[in-house]
Amino acid sequence: MKIAGRTFVVSGGASGLGKACVEDIVKAGGHAAVLDMNTEQGESVVRELGSSTRFFVCDVSDTESIGAAVQGIVSWVRDTGKPLGGIIPAAGVGRPGLILDRNLNPLAIDAIDFVININLRGTLDLVRQVLPYLAQSPTDGPDGERGIIVMVASAAAFEGQMGQVAYAASKGAVASMTLPMARDLSRFGIRVVTIAPSMFDSAMTAVMSDKVKQGLKKAMEFPMRAGRPHEFSSLVKQAIENAMLNGVVIRLDGATRMPSKL
Ligand SMILES: NC(=O)c1ccc[n+]([C@@H]2O[C@H](COP(=O)([O-])OP(=O)(O)OC[C@H]3O[C@@H](n4cnc5c(N)ncnc54)[C@H](O)[C@@H]3O)[C@@H](O)[C@H]2O)c1
């Protein structure tokens, strides 16, 4: 479907991969609702990109916070006349921790909840709350498309490394729900695609130590570098525009396969 003239909801849109999607959507003539917990960066994206974007402060692990943001988006869409075209739930966090450490302490349940609540529950809850409105958008093109959901998994969905049990669980679940969600939504003309990136440059990976980065580099085939946020968003753009992409998890990783240890 076309991006121009439609509004896309991007969580985690204030930084990294989500922000690159917001930039590309605006460049293609669309509107982007930027949902993020980081108000300072969210407002800065709107200052940078102008009135085709609107920031909604939102904690995706909090159902009411999503509900308030969705109401704001619905009224913004009503004002602009640019109907909803898709959801890109890109908000995500990592919090490494071994399931059992050398002192026999199991991973804290709070650490597990934190990651699952944002990466998995937050993704599902945002999708769930936007869908009733997306399903009422006017259709586009001869296929009668109403919209698309582009979710963000990770290489850790398939090759989680040591210390990534909670993160891998959250991302594996996102990958697993792609096909059933596509099946549920086909009657509405809504497609579902998930992208599973390897290491990409962003605030999330900027905090990794040089040792970890060098270790990850050894697992890379070609190109031997981290992905760039716009290499991610250009695949999101393709997913939006290519009607045959549906119910699929696409690895975006330059043939990297994560080893057990670095
Ligand atoms: N960068 C990578 O190497 C990489 C690889 C695979 C998958 N991913 C996934 O890509 C997505 C984007 O990550 P990124 O690398 O751009 O990281 P990032 O830290 O640059 O951006 C994540 C954004 O999510 C926001 N966020 C965090 N918790 C939130 C919450 N509870 N509610 C709303 N917003 C919240 C942050 O404020 C931030 O703006 C994540 O789901 C991440 O797991 C990233």
Automatic annotation (TrEMBL):
Keywords for the protein's UniProt record, in alphabetical order: NADP, Oxidoreductase
UniProt keyword Manganese present: no
Domain Ketoreductase intervals: 6-198
Stretches that traverse the bilayer: none
PROSITE patterns: ADH_SHORT
Keyword Protein transport: no
Molecular function GO labels: oxidoreductase activity
Entry-linked SUPFAM superfamilies: NAD(P)-binding Rossmann-fold domains
UniProt-listed PANTHER family: 17-BETA-HYDROXYSTEROID DEHYDROGENASE 14-RELATED, SHORT-CHAIN DEHYDROGENASE/REDUCTASE
Protein name per Swiss-Prot or TrEMBL: 3-hydroxyacyl-CoA dehydrogenase type-2
Species of origin: Echria macrotheca
Biological classification of the source: Eukaryota, Fungi, Dikarya, Ascomycota, Pezizomycotina
